Amino acid sequence: MMELLSLDDFKDTKIDPNWGPFDYLLHVLDVDQQKMQKSQNAPPPPQTLCKQDHKGFKLRSKFNNSVGLKRKRNLKAVEEEDDGDGDRVAPKLKPKRSKKQEKSVCPIPPPDLPPLFRQLIVEEMGGRGLVLVIQKTIFFSDINPTASRFSIPFSQVKTHDFLNEAEAKELDDKNSMQVWLLDPSMRGTSITLNKWVMGSSSLYVLTNTWNPLVKNNQLKKGDMVQLWSFRVNSLLCFALVKL
Predict the structure, then answer these.
(1) Could you count the other beta carbons within 10 Å of the beta carbon of residue 205?
(2) pLDDT digit string (tens) for 135-175?
(3) For labelling alongside 58, which of 40, 64, 180, 192 has CA 20 to 30 A away?
């Protein structure tokens, strides 16, 4: 409940002959605040009455200081948002990216199976389940007549799902498989599929009739090729595409 001021509240007041009506009003407000603080058993706020000039006093308090700080902070925020023209906002700083992130490049997805191959396999042969096994560059070892094989390193294989469990076990037991291959000129031929383990490395290989295939399709070192797998009546087949 608010208490009214009495004459006792002004017993310590020293009247300045230069005070005007506004000075008396400020002093009354000051006395009222001090009385309210005492009634709440709390120390009075640090307020001072200092003489400004012959015309009046200036009241300073924590309240005024906090308001001033808020105004300064708000002014600073406005200055940061305004670039000087008054209608543009300064851009936010982008987070720095590491050199590794800047150098990283998204891998380019491999091209799809050419339309002519897809038409022959799907529409004419009734092939299903096309899977890209590998995309690689032809090395000298792939066209070396003495080696007579096309290597499919495990480290470059896109997926091993082109084999079913029975076929995978057959190769793991070091047994070869006869499969049907559609060469880059879209001619079919029978070829042998093996799995080789060389030390800590493993690879699939196409052998036996590989040399004639290289010659007939004029494959050379540096050519980029894709090997696709598909099935015709559940039988494993391959298509070798020259890009």
Answers:
(1) 19
(2) 999 999 999 999 999 999 999 999 999 999 999 999 999 99
(3) 40
Q: Per-residue pLDDT tens for 33-89?
A: 777 777 765 554 555 444 444 444 344 444 445 445 454 455 444 444 444 444 555
The tokens for 16 are: 């300045």
Tell me the residue type at 148.
Answer: S
Q: Give the distance between the most distant pair of CA atoms in the chain.
A: 122
Partner residues linked to 82 by β-bridges: 89
Closest CA to 91 of 101, 104, 100, 82: 82
Structural tokens at position 101: 């992130």
The overall pTM is greater than 0.85: no
